[in-house]
Amino acid sequence: MADSTAxxxxxxxxxxxxxxxxxMLAMDVVDTLRHQEDVAERELAQDGRDETLKERLRRLxxxxxxxxxxxxxxEGIKALKESRFTYEPTPSSFSRVLAGMWVRRSLYxxxxxxxxxxxxxxxxxxxxxxxxxQQAAEAARIELTETLPNEIASTAKxxxxxxxxxxxxxxxxxxxxxxxxxxxxSDAAAAKxxxxVLQQVRVQxxxxxxxxxxxxxxxxxGVYRIPDVNTGARNYYLIVEAVTPDGKVLSxxxxxxxxxxxxxxxxxxxxVPEATYEAVRRDKTDDGILQNDIVGTKPRGALQPVYxxxxxxxxxxxx
Length: 319
What we know:
This protein is α+β, with helices and mostly antiparallel strands and 319 residues long. It contains ten helices and ten strands. Helix 7 packs antiparallel against helix 8 (166-184).
């Protein structure tokens, strides 16, 4: 063992520097001192206590079955004091930042690629939004200045050409004037509503039907109402339906005089004088069959029927 130690101690002189095993031992001493940091700091802080610390280290190594020379222990204590074998990061600098970026170039490359993708998506979405807004604005402009005016004008012209009564012509002209007024205010929704009414009027004028009194088993042909404001009076109604020449029953928009609401119905009550009501009642009770069941006829090109019986005006949709 002594020969081995002597050979080891002779090695530095022969090579001009510490042998690798001695250097490793010195580093181990430093590492041991660091693990015993509280002891090392207390001992090293007191001058003349190196021998005490060295003796403690020798006993520590001996307890582990290792024989360490004084030179190695002295070298380790000296190295700890000089902060050798301790990594100290280089000061911050631009070159250090560049070096760090180069080491992490893969991560930065992925982040940059993700940023480029996000930026491209944002630019594309913004461009699409801008184009969509421009297209919507152009479509709205065309609708207000070209499409709706042309449709309103053509519908009114066609309806006027089909109208056969002054009432129908006045109604069409009034609707066209209202539609042009809302167009001048750039109110597309109101203009569309006016166009829809014009189209309904045209359809209504084209219809041809008879106002026929309902006369079927278990169905009423007439009713009367007692007004709330005058309990001594009665309002008489004949229950009718619109029947086309081919027997089809139409649904017709009817405004109820009781609640003011307009509803599309297939049966409604036409208000008539008491004399008309009684004549129909006698006709039906005579033999159970209505001989005269046509209240009026609605011709093509008109909005209202031409009445064969006397009517009072007004209607109801529920009874």
